[in-house]
Amino acid sequence: MSANPQKEQRVGPYPNMLVVEAAFVVFRNAIGSIGIMMNLFLMYCVVWKSPKPIKKAYRIILGNSAAHDLFACVGLLLLQPRLIPHDFVYLFIVDGPAKCLGSWVCYLLSIITFHCIASNFISYGVVYIYRLLTVTNEAPKLGRMKKVCLASFLLTFALSVTYGFSYVDSSELIAYARKNMSGVDVSENPVVFGTDLSKNFAGYPMMAALFIAIIPIFGVMVYVRHRANIFTKNKPLSELTLSRHRMLMRVLTAQAVLPIIFIFPVLVLYALYHTGLARLNFTEYAFFPMIASLHAINPFITIYFMKPYAEVVRRIMHIKPTAIQPHDTSASANHISSITTHQPLPNGHPLSGSPINAVIESTV
């Protein structure tokens, strides 16, 4: 490569990038703060405001996802990273308060943050499969769900450990950026971290988990929704059960829409950016704020569909609580639906003939 490489032209959507930078500073801090508060509130509801009929296995799923959402929001708020890919180099420029701690600490924080993001992506597929089993009256028990959550944690933990060995010294990254990314100004952003996949293959699994894994997981979500719909269409179900199934379908649809809104558009822009087809400065700012938005909106939808938690919100806001009927549907857009029934059979199981009722048991 010549000593004076030709400047790389990157055209932004705005003539003055200061406008974009200011807008994203406000957005990242706002969405991160909201996400932290809402996930803390959701965890409070899961631990202290979950009525007894809600299955412990269901609470495990809720708490597991809320914890990953919370730590992802905290990490992204502290880092506020900008992603700039170039060939096999992934450069992250730290704009958040964590840059006061230096590049190495930011890199360690990124490992934890990426672990939580990848774990949350995997949990989408897990909870959708759980929903399908729920509809077919084969909901897993508490012990199995603990093992599933532990397995998903260990998988992403292994990815994080592997990613830890792909560390590149920040001085090398800054020198690379000054030589090959002439459109990137690192003089005012000395705190950077990243990896060079051409020299170290250890970063491939985590990068794949962040940028590719959501695509097959989304395929699982669509397939499970389709199978759940087919199952109930082929079964003679009561009107009550059908109404619950329609609620379940709304929940499944709501979760499936979230990646379409917050993940796929940014992935397309990222692919265009990385391949050189479109060098939009907007892209490097947008990727992680959109992921943070996904983690911040998840608890809103969960609380909205979980009526026990929605009642807590109504009481806090001094809104007259709505009476929960004996056969009431409570569902989470981020997880399985949950239904309370007060008509147990002699063996203690929920009313037969209504497969969705199997989601909740008084004890596990």
What is the topology?
Layout: H1 17-48, H2 56-79, E1 81-86, E2 89-94, H3 103-135, H4 142-164, H5 170-180, E3 192-196, H6 204-211, H7 214-233, H8 239-262, H9 264-275, H10 281-305, H11 307-316, E4 328-331, E5 337-340
Antiparallel strand pairs: 1-2, 2-3, 4-5
Helix pairs in contact: 1-2, 1-10, 2-3, 2-4, 2-10, 3-4, 3-7, 4-6, 7-8, 8-10, 9-10
Distance between the termini: 65 Å
Secondary-structure content class = mainly alpha
Helix-strand string = HHEEHHHEHHHHHHEE
Judging from the principal axes of the Cα atoms, what is the shape? elongated
- Count every helix, treating DSSP H or I runs of 4 or more residues as helices: 11
Radius of gyration computed on alpha carbons: 23 Å
Contiguous low-pLDDT stretches (5 residues minimum) are 1-15, 324-364
Helix content: 55-70%
Overview of the molecule:
This protein has 364 residues and is mainly alpha-helical. The chain has eleven helices and five strands; from the N terminus they run H-H-E-E-H-H-H-E-H-H-H-H-H-H-E-E. It has helices at residues 17-48, 56-79, 103-135, 142-164, 170-180, 204-211, 214-233, 239-262, 264-275, 281-305, 307-316, and strands at residues 81-86, 89-94, 192-196, 328-331, 337-340. The chain has a three-stranded antiparallel sheet with strand order 1-2-3. Helix 2 (56-79) packs antiparallel against helix 10 (281-305), helix 3 (103-135) runs parallel beside helix 7 (214-233) and helix 8 (239-262) packs antiparallel against helix 10 (281-305). It is elongated.
